[in-house]
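re: ur question from earlier - yeah i can do the single chain one, its not a big deal. heres the input i used so u can compare w yours
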Amino acid sequence: MLNHIIIQALKDSDNYNSDGTINWNFVESDLWNHSVSSLYSKEEKVNAIENFPKSLIPSVKRGK
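and the output i got, formated as tokens:
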């Protein structure tokens, strides 16, 4: 489920810097503020961000 939340956040173009790189602080914020976030421990959420597989990062078209 945590990977699913991260993938959702990565599909949001607002979570990218102007140079196209991921703003992981914004993605992490989305994870922590998600409605099911309270079901997971701090350690689980930190681990999910730190070990998120690069192969799961979706391609996002940014209009910037």
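The chain has a mean pLDDT of 92. not sure if urs matches, ping me
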